């Protein structure tokens, strides 16, 4: 598939997703109005009709209306989330069209990884605007972006590892639906720097409630007693005012744990959507069929991760509901906030050791899918061959950041240790571009990506460059002294 065909492919996908998003707008609006009607109907029941009916019927009608309203809220949220996903997929395809046309696709450019002291990243424009990282990066997680940046900063010296990455990249290149769904799920929530680390530290914090056995009894017996009192009151065996006794007791118990609840509530407001994002990415990975050793290893590391993080996100969302006005009623009836705090801490105690490996596996997959997009977008690139023989040989080597119509491809041959290749020519003749093309493609090769060449054979090596010399006047050091 040539460049024009790739562009047409992305254009058709963009049109399809935009159409799906437009078709979803009508049902979303209808569901929104239905929510309003049910809410107003519930208010009318509580204010006008319910008080005029027997207590049991009035309470039953109120609970039924509440349940219907909460169900509609969830359905509406799912509809909106699906539409947001389609819009994000349309945007991703629009950006890929821009990338193929060598326009700025507005992905993260890796500016935070700029390091003037690095052996080659400054000279080769690895990070920053219009850099190699901006050209490659499709990472949707901070860990994945860090992993991709590390692969570009620290050349892999292991030929076997390079080949494993290449095989995984080739498989991912053919799985466009997976790659774009993975990106869209991640782009729906832009995580903050160090957020993943903060979540891991929070989940590894000490637990309190599950270590005290009486909480399990208390969290079952008190709501059961409250519901029994409500049932007896509805049947006329007790006066309705007796229902307030267990309700007040439960509110008192919840209030006694308010500091712990507030601590977790602060984390909920910052971490719930982050966990939902990672849960979606992990569930998508688990549900995908891979025919590759490295990808299957990563998938095995994520077994149960999507379900586990999704459950934690739901627990956090439910606990957050306890701080609302309706949560006051739930806490009085069921000790709502304490119920979910107990379950959250149970989850921490049983799963916190798995969080680190889950995040590491997802980061590797995230970095690989960025390289997979490169392999799909540039079918004219070749996968380099790592060799035990020292040297570097390439045919028709070009700089990947230059459009084909402006690029001049050249061979390069360095067949043994200590060999020097002398490049001469007039100013603006392309000497620096040629040298950068060699360096950038070597960086790509050792990251496991395809390179801009007809053929490329190399021995893994450390790369050093000295092209943009700068003295440090403040430190009173010459560039050559610092080197």
Write out the strand line-up for the largest beta sheet, numbering strands in chain order.
Answer: 1-4-2-3
Number of strands: 4
What is the beta-strand fraction? under 5%
Distance between the terminal alpha carbons, to the nearest Å? 46 Å
Largest sheet: 4 strands, mixed
Report the helical percentage. 55-70%
Structural domain tally: 4
* Uncertain residue ranges: 471-483
Note the run of SSEs as H and E.
HHHHHHHHHHHHHHEEEHEH
Distinct helical segment count: 16
Structural category: mainly alpha
Overall mean confidence score, pLDDT:
86
Overall description:
Helices cover 64% and strands 4% of the residues. The protein has 483 residues and is mainly α. It has 4 domains: 104 residues; 84 residues, no CATH class; 163 residues, no CATH class; 74 residues, no CATH class. A 4-stranded mixed beta sheet has the order 1-4-2-3. The protein is elongated, with a radius of gyration of 29 Å.
């Amino acid at each position: 598939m040539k460049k024009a065909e790739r562009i047409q492919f992305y254009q058709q996908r963009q049109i399809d997703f935009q159409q799906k998003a437009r078709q979803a707008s009508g049902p979303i609006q209808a569901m929104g109005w239905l929510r309003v009607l049910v809410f107003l109907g519930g208010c009318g029941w509580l204010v006008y009709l319910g008080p005029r009916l027997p207590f049991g019927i009035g309470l039953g009608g109120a609970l039924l209306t509440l349940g219907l309203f909460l169900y509609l809220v969830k359905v509406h949220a799912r509809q909106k989330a699906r539409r947001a996903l389609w819009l994000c997929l349309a945007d991703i395809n629009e950006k890929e069209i821009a990338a193929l046309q060598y326009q700025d696709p507005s992905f993260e450019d890796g500016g935070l990884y700029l390091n003037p002291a690095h052996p080659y990243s400054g000279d080769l424009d690895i990070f920053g605007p219009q850099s190699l990282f901006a050209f490659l990066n499709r990472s949707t997680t901070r860990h994945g972006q860090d992993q991709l940046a590390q692969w570009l900063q620290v050349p892999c010296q292991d030929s076997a590892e390079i080949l494993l990455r290449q095989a995984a990249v080739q498989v991912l290149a053919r799985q466009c639906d997976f790659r774009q769904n993975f990106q869209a799920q991640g782009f729906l929530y832009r995580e903050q720097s160090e957020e993943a680390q903060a979540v891991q530290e929070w989940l590894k914090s000490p637990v309190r409630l599950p270590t005290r056995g009486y909480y399990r009894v208390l969290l079952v017996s008190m709501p059961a007693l409250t519901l029994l009192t409500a049932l007896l009151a509805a049947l006329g065996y007790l006066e309705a005012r007796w229902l307030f006794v267990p309700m007040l007791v439960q509110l008192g118990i919840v209030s006694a744990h308010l500091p712990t609840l507030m601590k977790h509530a602060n984390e909920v407001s910052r971490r719930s959507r982050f966990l939902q994002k990672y849960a979606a990415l992990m569930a998508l990975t688990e549900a995908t069929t891979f025919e590759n050793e490295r990808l299957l290893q990563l998938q095995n590391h994520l077994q149960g991760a999507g379900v586990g993080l999704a459950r934690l996100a739901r627990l956090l969302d439910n606990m957050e509901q306890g701080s609302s006005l309706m949560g006051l009623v739930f806490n009085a009836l069921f000790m709502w906030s304490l119920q979910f705090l107990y379950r959250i801490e149970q989850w921490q105690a049983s799963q916190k050791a798995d969080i680190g490996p889950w995040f590491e596996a997802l980061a590797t997959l995230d970095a690989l899918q960025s390289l997979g997009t490169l392999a799909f977008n540039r079918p004219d690139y070749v996968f380099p061959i790592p060799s035990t023989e020292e040297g570097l040989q390439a045919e028709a080597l070009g700089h990947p950041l230059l459009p084909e119509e402006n690029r001049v491809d050249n061979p390069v041959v360095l067949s043994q240790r200590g060999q020097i290749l002398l490049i001469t020519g007039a100013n603006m003749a392309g000497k620096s571009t040629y040298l950068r093309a060699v360096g950038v493609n070597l960086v790509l090769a050792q990251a496991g990506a395809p390179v801009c060449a007809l053929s490329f054979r190399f021995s893994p090596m450390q790369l050093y460059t000295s092209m943009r010399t700068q003295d440090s006047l403040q430190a009173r050091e010459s560039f050559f002294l610092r080197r």
